[in-house]
Each structure stands twice: as structure tokens, then as C-alpha cells.
Amino acid sequence: MKNKQTYEIVLTGLGMALVFVATMFIKVPNALDGYFNLGDGFILLFASFLNPFESFLIGGLGSALADVAGGYGHYFFFTLIIKGLEAIVVSLLMKNYSKPKQISSYVLGSVIMVFGYFIAKYILKGSWIVAASEIPANVVQGVAGIVIALIAYPMVKKIVQDKLKSSRRK
Q: Is residue 68 exposed (0-12), middle (13-18) or buried (19+ Cβ within 10 Å)?
């Protein structure tokens, strides 16, 4: 049991680091105080394997810390909640689901992200029009995240399952 807990802690730390790096360094800023990034792919991927709390840390904290480090600190709280909820929902829905439900879990997580940032942008900018103008970029970011997670999931799933099984035997 101790090996399994250690493995999950390490996996959570790795997930937070990968989300941070993919959000911080693989980004395209836009003119409306936001940016397109690839962090969602890793959020969706890690939420596919880990429990909701660990997934929240990966999605929420990994992304929010990248906002702070990248000069978008005013988004910290919004990102923590939005990306954290995205990860929690995917984690809860992914337990023992088939491929079609995996895709719908990822889509729902991405919808939470798009809608969450729409609300956040409205709160920060005070304009529904400005908030709505970022929806297309966030949809593209969500789709890119889904594609990343779908491609990586089969490869990572086997590794994670094998490690968890071997840690249970020890």
C-alpha cells in the first residue's frame, strides 16, 4: 500500500510539472490578455488515471502556478477553480469507461474550461462581447487537449496500470 501511495504522489507531482511546462512554455498569447496553451492535454491525460483530489492538484495548481509565473497572476484563482473542476469531472467520469465515454468525459471537461474562462473573462473585463471573443481559441485549445489525451492515453495507461499492480504486490 505504501508503494502505491508513493507512486501516486510521484505521478501527481509529475502531472503538475508537465501541466506547468505545457502551459507556461508552449503558449501563444492573444491580444485580449489570455493565451492558447497545451496544458489541457496533460490535465485530461492525468485525470484519466488519478483520483479527483490528485487530478484537481494537477489541473488547478499546475495551471494556476503557470499563470503566476507567466505574468497572468490575476487569473490564478479562476484557473485554479476552472482547471481543477475540469480535472475532477474527467477523473470522476473516467473510472472504467469505454472509449466513447472517454471521449465524452474529455469533451465535458473541455466545455467546463471554455465556459469557465468565458465567465472569468467577463468578470475581469466586464464585457460579454470581450468574453465571447475568446471562446473560439478556448475551443481549439480544448480540442487540442482532447487529441493529446486520446493519443497518449493508450500508451500511458499500460505503464500506469503495470506500476500500480506491481506496487500492490510489494
A: middle
Answer for the pair 41, 148: CB distance below 8 angstroms, yes or no: yes
Q: Are 120 and 78 in contact (CB under 8 A)?
A: yes
Of all residues in the chain, the percent with pLDDT exceeding 90 is 72
Answer whether 133's CB lies under 8 Å from 32's CB.
yes
80 CB burial (10 A radius; 0-12, 13-18, 19+): buried
- Residues 6 or more apart whose CB falls under 8 angstroms from that of 160 comprise 11, 49
Distance, C-alpha 46 to centroid of its chain: 8
Report in angstroms the alpha-carbon separations of 48 from 66, 67, 89, 162. Answer: 22, 23, 10, 15
The residue count for the chain: 170
**By the 8 A CB rule, do 88 and 46 touch?**
no
| Least confident range of 11-20, 44-53, 122-131, 157-166 | 157-166
- Helix (H) or strand (E) holding 27, with range, is strand 27-29
E runs forming strands in 33-144: 35-37
Using a cut of 0.70, tell me whether the model's pTM lies above it: yes
